[in-house]
Amino acid sequence: MEPLAIKPLLGLLNLLRPTGGHGQSVSEGVDPRCRQQLKCRPHSLFTPSWPAQACWGAGAAMQKVGGGGSVSSGRPIKCVVVGDGTVGKTCMLISYTTDSFPGEYVPTVFDNYSAAMMCDGVPVSLGLWDTAGQEDYDRLRPLSYPQTDVFLICFSVVSPSSFENVTSKWFPEIKHHCPDAPIILVGTKMDLREDKETLQQLSEQGLSPIKREQGQKLCSKIRAIKYLECSALTQRGLRQVFDEAVRAVLRPEPLKRRQRRCKLV
User: Among candidates 220, 212, 222, which has minimal Cα distance to 170?
Assistant: First the structure.
């Protein structure tokens, strides 16, 4: 397979999120599976996008478009990822685009990327937008929503609170700003569902992992296109998440063929 041609896009949240110095981002928590520190080169408002890069990643099965691999090739699709902090949104995006699970989890360090690819024979330029889940960003986060084609609402299968927040926070927020945009519900960190240490920690709090059936039920409740589970660490189910995100835009359900226009309030 040919590698993806990807390049960072200039995103508002990249400019607005606080940093702890050049190349460092403020951390909200550490994923128990992470060991190394991750750094991000911040964007400047007046600097052009970085040069295009090539990555193999889990998404490499979607082949590069054309001979030059220009990221402008194909239909542009904007995919925005939302969910509580520490559910693994950034790790999921980094693992997918680089085929490498990051070391220490630093929240929202993934720059917005555009990947030229083929999906079911259709050339697509998939834009991947990371967002910050902390309350401090509640007023800034919607700035990335306009013209979004599809949303990934994420929760961790080992974090019941993040599962509950899909209904109480994330779904209402998305429907308010982008009422017609399709949604893929994603359960992350599925590899920890059988992890003894994680199960022990949950048990001590009187909690247990979210079952697949619970995710499917929530999917129906919020009328999401699909419910999928994945692991950024093992990459199990990872490619399918983004494949289905693209398909949700290319092949919308007949009753949902409406223009996806977002509003800012």
Answer: 222
Supply the CATH number for residue 130's domain.
Answer: 3.40.50.300
Looking at the structure of the chain, the number of domains it has is 1
**Per-residue pLDDT at 44:** 26
Strands 112-119 and 122-129: antiparallel
- Once rounded to an integer, what is the mean pLDDT over residues 178-193? 97
Query: Using CA atoms, how far apart are residues 43 and 175, in angstroms rounded to an integer?
Result: 30
pLDDT per residue as tens digits for the range 15-45 = 333 333 333 333 333 344 433 333 333 332 2
Q: Domain of 104?
A: 4-14+30-256
Answer yes or no: is 127 within a domain.
yes
pTM above 0.85, yes or no: no
Burial environment of residue 126 by CB neighbours within 10 A (0 to 12, 13 to 18, 19 or more): buried
Q: Give the pLDDT of residue 101.
A: 86
pLDDT of residue 196 exceeding 60 = yes
Radius of gyration from C-alpha coordinates of the chain: 18
Residue 250, judged by CB atoms within 10 A of its CB (0-12, 13-18, 19+), counts as middle
Q: Kindly provide the b/e burial profile for residues 129-152, where b requires at least 16 CB atoms within 10 angstroms of the residue's own CB.
A: bbbbbbeebeeebbebbeebbbbb
Q: What are phi and psi of 82, to 5 degrees?
A: -130, 165
